[in-house]
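I hope you will forgive my troubling you with a question about protein structure. Could you please explain, in whatever detail you think fit, how the C-alpha cells follow from the sequence? Thank you for your consideration; the sequence and its C-alpha cells are set out here.
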Amino acid sequence: MIEFHDAIVRVRYAETDQMGVVYHANYLVWFEVGRAELIRALGIEYKRMEMEDDCHIVVADVHCRYHHSAQYDEVLRIRTRIEETKNRIIRFSYEVIRDADGKVLANGETTHVICGSNGRPKMLPQKYRTVFSAIAAPQPQRSHA
C-alpha cells in the first residue's frame, strides 16, 4: 500500500495576483486535487462512491499554514496523506512543495464527514474504511496515567 500520493500542478496565471504570486485560496483547491488523486491511486473512484454507495466526503474543517509564496508557472507537488480514518470521519494532511528545490511552501489538513445525499452523516462503508485505514498514519498511543 502507498503511504502518500504526490499530484503535480503547474501554477496558472489565473491563480496569481498582479505580481505573479498565488492567491491564498488556491491552496485549498490544490488540497482537493491531492485528495482526489490519492483516492484514485488507492483504486477508488470518488464518483462511484457517490453513485453506488451514496457516500459523500464533505469538508467539515480546513487548516492551511503558508510558509513561502508560490509563483506563476512553478511546478508544485501536492503531497497528500490520510492521517486518520474513523467510522464517519477522514482526516487528510497536505504539503505543497515547489518541485524545483523541494521547498515546502504550505502545509495543512482537512477533516471530512461522510454524508449521504440527504446531507446527514453516515458510516463509511467497510470496503472504503479498510482501504483508508490501511494507509492512515499510525495514531500515537495515549497514556493512561
User: Anything to note?
Assistant: The mean pLDDT is 93. The CA atoms of residues 35 and 80 lie 6 Å apart. The chain has one domain: 5-135. The two ends are 35 Å apart (CA to CA).
